[in-house]
């Protein structure tokens, strides 16, 4: 019988969910759902000093926002709990004792200072740091003497000499590590009584019957240590797949919770009014692609299409511009009421609209949002784009200022203003007729005609149809803006 597919996303609660974490979670999720398996979330919180308040909650909330659902987690435990490593000491400690009893592990009484000193000496000699094996063969009397001194201890795993540790990586193919290359007998139980990462992970993946470990290749050097733990207990190892990491395009370094140079947390995009469906779609294409050229896929399509054989062997870089493009595709397909609902909170926050609106105001807002919807990358952009509808004194960028500095601009704007003032019916055809009339009157045409009018009334060089914009702006505001530009 083949094992049931069970995969896990195992974040440490040391920060918020970033694009790289989300990609790793998403690929595990797609892999599980594609094969009808289970997707599990386990919190790796053994590094007590680095855990942050709310880290776990934020990881889970943002996964849920992305519409990633899971079968087991700290909140909805299955039969393999607890799902936080800090709560699994009762599972780890007897296993550590078992290794001690069978002499596959031993207590090490070296102090931090002694270990540091040894490491510095090795580095000074140009050697790779490794534990010397100082405590590997202590007699019971020597141990008792250290204990009597009041020294505390760690437990180290006895690394077998001259062994090869091989696995067939789902992404990278066959990989072999020499046991002598892992830095000597490594710690499995820390001074604070917590198991180390590598020990806990191996135990948990085994106990939770994880079939495939799909994680970032930042973990690849951990794999031989974890394989040694499996071997020591006579357990069968899961299948490993080490996926290339997502790189920050700006710095060329891997995205990490500690990288603050770019917008990279899911939360930040959520707050800017990105759509979860668009983010899901975008993230699924970071380091993976289905056959063909299409780039827009629903969640169900991605579940159907996902194939681990198509995971990329080279790192994907995170391109925020591409994300904007994908999100724009999704925004364009929203009906106007839904998209207006997404934009309204941004207006409300700026005090430009109140959440309770008259029917008339709501209709006006929908028209306004609808003007800009086709060009928008995310909902928060609406504030900047519609500035002129709320603000008499817009801030113009340099290019816009240059347009207004043109020689024929005052003539054009004066003529346009006079015509608008004398308009009796204020609608799109008459506004268009006015522009034509200004062309005739001034002899200015093309860009030199349209651009100054557009910039003067809307503050921007690009945007929706000029007639629609002016109509929505209304006669009074249009004239006020023209006066401002002419002043
Ligand atoms: N840049 C990245 N690209 C893809 N996956 C990543 C990236 N960074 C981390 N991961 C993966 O996310 C999962 C959770 O890792 P972890 O909680 O240690 O996050 P982290 O961002 O690496 O944290 P840190 O800032 O401490 O390095 C792991 O499987 C890890 O491989
Ligand atoms: Zn020691």
- Total tally of structural domains: 3
CATH architecture of the largest domain: 3-Layer(aba) Sandwich
Radius of gyration: 31 Å
User: What is the typical, i.e. mean, pLDDT?
Assistant: 94
**Overall SS class:** mainly alpha
Distance between the termini: 83 Å
The description of the largest β-sheet is: 3 strands, antiparallel
The coarse overall form would be elongated
Low-confidence stretches: none
Structure commentary:
46% of the residues lie in helices and 10% in strands. With 487 residues, the chain is mainly alpha-helical. The chain has three domains: 1-73 and 198-333, Rossmann fold (3-Layer(aba) Sandwich); 334-385, Glutamate-tRNA synthetase, class I, anticodon-binding domain 1 (Helicase, Ruva Protein, domain 3), CATH 1.10.8.70; 398-486, Arc Repressor Mutant, subunit A (Orthogonal Bundle), CATH 1.10.10.350. The strands form five sheets. A three-stranded antiparallel sheet has the order 3-4-7. Strand 1 (6-9), helix 1 (19-34) and strand 2 (38-41) form a beta-alpha-beta unit. Helix 1 packs across helix 10, helix 9 packs across helix 11 (320-332) and helix 19 (447-458) packs parallel to helix 20 (466-473). The chain is elongated. The relative contact order is 0.09. The chain binds adenosine-5'-triphosphate (ATP) and zinc ion. Zinc ion (ZN) binds at residues 108-110, 134-135. A motif ('HIGH' region) lies at residues 11-21. Keywords: Aminoacyl-tRNA synthetase, ATP-binding, Cytoplasm, Ligase, Metal-binding, Nucleotide-binding, Protein biosynthesis, Zinc. Catalyzes the attachment of glutamate to tRNA(Glu) in a two-step reaction: glutamate is first activated by ATP to form Glu-AMP and then transferred to the acceptor end of tRNA(Glu).
